Amino acid sequence: MVRRTHKKSRNGCIECKRRHMKCDEKRPICSNCISSQRHCEFLEPMRIGQSRNVRSETATASPAVGSPAVTSPPAQEPSNSPETAPVNMLHVELDILRYGIGAPYLMNELLSLSSLHLSIVRPGQRDFYRHNSTQLQSHALSSFNSSSSQINDENYVAIFLFAGILGLHMLCETLVYPDNDFEGFLDQFVQYVVLHYGVRTVAGGGRWQLLQQTALKPMLDLGARIPSENESLGPVCHVLLDRIKGLGNNETTTKTYEQTIQALQSVITVIDSQVPGYNSSGILIAWPILVPREYIDLVAQRKCEALVILAYFGALVDTHKHSWVFCDGGKYLVDSVTQYLGPQWEEWLHWPRQSLMVPNSV
């Protein structure tokens, strides 16, 4: 019998090469490693002469500890405007950067997010900055996985920051650079949420009070402004919940949807309140932490009503489309869910679709 030819992936991840599988080369985690829940890592070959160029052009700067070589961008006029300042929304203070000096995975993830930001605000150099961002993130993940996996009093702050920044990075990457295939987008979104749940792990074990005593206190205080889960539902969420209750799901699933819609209401309340000095984009980033883990499983199973809720979230994201973190990701999410579910769910999706057409309709 003639052996069927197998097209190899030249730039596939290490795990797929070891298992002799064709890798789809999706960064930072390929589809095979997502489905099998394996550690995904890519080797980045260094181009000839790259190290020498980097040293000569960055002689006055100190690279991140253990960071991979990063090429220098084409010449460009410097810009000090707030819109182009790298990672301006993070407001990272020197006290926070201090944790990165002792944790290479955190420092490299900060640099990776900064490169991702530059790829968005400087579209002419998008490919260059995205490539560097991928390199830095792969190195950060590799460094984190090779370090101690035990959370202790010495590393819990760095791990908390790493989990949060990595979650922000993956959310931005998912929304701003979505996969052309909506199925792939959903897989990437689920993977983002699973990683973001690391924040809960660190916050547990009685360490929340300890975190409040660190330089992170101003950031953590923002969480106190998130409305209570017992807040009454507004008309939009009330109608959505009534529709879902009419589907006849079991009690556990219905409760999961109820908690998810309650988290959705929290986002709507914060956006509607428009508290001076409060950046409501933070509640959008926090939404995956507010929803039950079981809801993410329902998204992974492609449950139609779960995707409808995701479209509602997309409509809320669209209210912040001028932020570099989201761009047109909210519109993509609403349009993709609408096309994926088809005309039979058109009535369910009336509000999110209407929200895209009417500015500030939330």
UniProtKB/TrEMBL annotation:
<keyword id="KW-0804">Transcription</keyword>
<feature type="domain" description="Zn(2)-C6 fungal-type">
    <location>
        <begin position="12"/>
        <end position="42"/>
    </location>
</feature>
<keyword id="KW-0812">Transmembrane</keyword>
<keyword id="KW-0238">DNA-binding</keyword>
<feature type="compositionally biased region" description="Polar residues">
    <location>
        <begin position="69"/>
        <end position="83"/>
    </location>
</feature>
<dbReference type="InterPro" id="IPR036864">
    <property type="entry name" value="Zn2-C6_fun-type_DNA-bd_sf"/>
</dbReference>
<keyword id="KW-0472">Membrane</keyword>
<dbReference type="InterPro" id="IPR001138">
    <property type="entry name" value="Zn2Cys6_DnaBD"/>
</dbReference>
<dbReference type="GO" id="GO:0008270">
    <property type="term" value="F:zinc ion binding"/>
</dbReference>
<feature type="transmembrane region" description="Helical">
    <location>
        <begin position="156"/>
        <end position="177"/>
    </location>
</feature>
<keyword id="KW-0805">Transcription regulation</keyword>
<dbReference type="GO" id="GO:0001228">
    <property type="term" value="F:DNA-binding transcription activator activity, RNA polymerase II-specific"/>
</dbReference>
<dbReference type="Pfam" id="PF00172">
    <property type="entry name" value="Zn_clus"/>
</dbReference>
<dbReference type="GO" id="GO:0003677">
    <property type="term" value="F:DNA binding"/>
</dbReference>
<keyword id="KW-1133">Transmembrane helix</keyword>
<feature type="region of interest" description="Disordered">
    <location>
        <begin position="53"/>
        <end position="84"/>
    </location>
</feature>
<dbReference type="InterPro" id="IPR053157">
    <property type="entry name" value="Sterol_Uptake_Regulator"/>
</dbReference>
<keyword id="KW-0539">Nucleus</keyword>
<protein>
    <recommendedName>
        <fullName>Zn(2)-C6 fungal-type domain-containing protein</fullName>
    </recommendedName>
</protein>
